[in-house]
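Technical annex B. To support the medicinal chemistry partners, we prepared a structural model of the target in complex with magnesium ion, based solely on the information shown next.
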Amino acid sequence: MKTIDKIYINGEFVTPQGTEYFDLISPTTNKILGKVLLGNQKDTQNAIAAAKNAFETFSKTTIEERIQYLKNMQASIEKRKEDFINTMVEEYGGTLQFATISYEYMLKSFNSVIELLNTYKFSKIMGESEVQMTSIGVVGIIIPWNSSNGFICSKLSTAIAAGCTTVIKPSEMSAQQTQLITECLHEAKLPKGVFNIVNGLGEVVGAEISRNPDIAKISFTGSTVVGKIIAKEAINTMKRVTLELGGKSPNIILDDANFSEAIPLAMAAAYMNNGQACIAGTRLLVPESKLDEVKSLIKNIAATIIVDDPKKETTSVGPMVSAKQYERVQNYIQTGIDEGAEILIGGLGKPEGLENGNFVKPTVFVHVKNNMRIAQEEIFGPVLSVITYKTEEEAIKIANDTTYGLQAYVSSSNEERAHKVASQINAGRVQINGIKHDPMAPFGGFKQSGIGREFGILGLEAYLEPKALIR
Ligand code: NAP
Ligand code: MG
């Protein structure tokens, strides 16, 4: 049993004033792993005050100094590889495969931010004026549990590049992962107050960050529902917001695609991160004439998907993060059945032998209509909806018939055709014949998938306020 009873304020591990504990429960066994002492409103205010104080000097640091801090952060994270991977597997239930990739991305996020700093011009000429891109102020970083330290690395590194100071509120379910990264960041010896980390509830710590007048900007990743609550509160003090919200990403397989490549890729896109991924390709759009071929390919691939203890190297789908998330996914599978969709693989209940954890059977529904709830709402579990189309135009129409617009996928053996289709999809990123992350390209959503962009120049500029000096 581990007890995490410290938060991080002004360069020190301190005991929060909050008195409430939250149990940390293994997604794999549902046994208690430990508990975390939660911070309260006063703790959050103290963290914000420390960040505000640090901003005075940190915003004046040179590019070289910021690059050195980023290198120090990366170096200390590099030393704890095994710990990062194992903690993510144990606490979150991410598979060993996923946790390893996720760790590599954490490290790489520092490289791309350093690369940006080496080329970005913080002073530009626009019209006849000098435009200074100034640090925006204290940034509140509010994040979910599905890639906790990945989000901390990408958001914090960008904030630091921009000369901002931060208060971070991770999900309380990620407390052990948070403890680990806090130790690394402490070792990196950043000036006191540049980063502060407060464990606590969204309605307490997150709400104070959204309300507090000393927070200039919020970078949030999470659900669309909570994103709207934060944005409404933020407007009272005119905080800038970057919101990375949910998705229901379409994956269009064009009739000329190589189906024996495109369908395995589609399954990987749907089940990545145990299906708990905002960018998961959860609506698979296939030509009506190819449905039988697609069904038999899916069945063959399903036989190779291993749902098991996430610690095992061979596991491709691990448990849902919590019993609550498991129930949510079960409810959606029931909804799909009630709506008249047909289960091709998977279905309700837990896979045999895995009854103790929050394991879901990877599920594929066929005969899904795009207006069904399972095609419109984010399930956040390994559930894929197959929808057929007759023409390319219809495929594009279905793809865009959603309130979301975070990511999309297109497969075709004709690059030019794929490019043309991709250009007509309303999504922040469209993946052509593959799944990749470009850390220099913008990431973010159209429509209710969010506001603003992260990564690359646009991501950096979201932490900067332009000031024109007109003479
Ligand atoms: P969530 O409920 O939206 O929570 C995200 C964060 O917001 C958590 O730290 C949460 O704290 C906090 N929060 C909750 N209520 C708040 C409030 N009233 N004020 C301020 N903060 C508040 O999301 P989740 O259930 O943890 O994660 C799953 C969701 O995240 C999915 O819908 C998924 O699409 C989305 N997501 C999006 C992206 C993206 O990049 N677009 C990436 C990953 C996940 P508590 O944990 O204490 O509630
Ligand atoms: Mg929540």
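Notes passed to the chemistry partners:
The pocket of magnesium ion (ligand 2) is lined by residues 202 (CB under 6 Å).
The chain has two domains: 2-245+447-469, 250-432.
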